[in-house]
Amino acid sequence: MIDTSTIDVFLGLDVGKGEHHATAVTPTGKKAFDKRLPNTEPKLRELFAKLQAKHGTVLVVVDQPASIGALPLAVARDMGCPVAYLPGLTMRRIADLYPGEAKTDARDAFIIADASRAMPHTLRAINGEDETIAELEMIVGFDDDLAGEATRVANRLHGLLTQIHPSLERVLGPRLQHPAVLTLLERFGSPAQILKAGRRRLVTLLRPKAPRMAERLVEDIFAALDEQTVVVPGTEAAALIVPSLAGSLAAVLDQRKLLAGRIDELLEAHPLSKVLTSMPGVGVRTGARILIEVGDGRTFPTAGHLAAYAGLAPATRSSGSSIRGEQPSRRGNKQLKRAFFLSAFASLADPASRAYYDKKIAQGKHHTQALLCLARRRADVLFAMLRDGTFYESRPATAA
What we know:
Layout: E1 9-14, E2 19-25, E3 31-38, H1 41-54, E4 58-62, H2 70-78, E5 83-85, H3 88-95, H4 105-118, E6 124-125, H5 131-164, H6 166-172, H7 179-187, H8 191-197, H9 199-206, H10 214-225, H11 235-269, H12 273-277, H13 284-294, H14 303-309, E7 315-319, E8 323-327, H15 334-346, H16 351-362, H17 367-388
Helix pairs in contact: 1-2, 5-6, 5-11, 5-13, 6-10, 7-11, 9-10, 11-13, 13-15, 14-17, 15-17, 16-17
């Protein structure tokens, strides 16, 4: 929770690409400023300096801390103004408490400022001094975009191969992102072209990318090709598309490898890196995402707050005697929730994590529910590790 006892004026910014709407309110709720503001450093400095000279300490609060909200925060920090972030979902819920149904920049800016004054517990602190986290956030965000693009292109390739030759897709599909398979599809985009190339040429082509698998893979490919003698309509068109898709997928995967190296370097340089990666199942990408969203954990009073923010705390439903129970939360930070979920799945090789997962399965929960329970438990452990600055300590499976 951010301490607002020393704040003299609360400045809410509804940020935009070209200009922001700025509304400032005093601790008594009186408006001190309410105008549109160009998204330029001189105008931002002029406003912050004016409010500081007239009122004192200015708390600058935005509804989007990255992208279009980055410049106001950087200028505010440079001028010694404390900064904070009001999450968009929280602001939308708070907006229902204010009269009127209009959705305007002026109204949103006032709600941000007034909520900061009246409900400081809804604010989140922004650590602007950690350049490593800022760089990680940008690179990991781009990596997420590339992951989505890789999935899209791979699905398109799966679909084309299944359409023209299902048997060939059954052989290549599970290995579709392997460099050897992508090299094959880039060079030969149809079953006829693969047959014409012959076994010896394919083995020579694939061996540098897959020394142990090349001969076996080629035999599996030709066995699959022998299972289909008819040519499906559209095969010639697919022969033009498949090499292009394979090349695109290879390029995207190469970019992700380069980014993974930089993410690893940045994560390794952060003082919390050893703490995070000491937990089983936390790798480079999941560790980076947790570091970006959680930081050192000081913005969360308890482990329960962290679990709720990540959408891992179950939502209780109770009404009279007919509705009682708990359901998985549909809210929270989806990227952080995904990181916890993936790390929980990866941690099943750890005896303690596996024992807890098996316990939930024995209680009648299905796979996803059991993993969510494990992720929730791991959020508690991670919170304690960050709070105390300690490494993960594995326990015997029976203790779990």
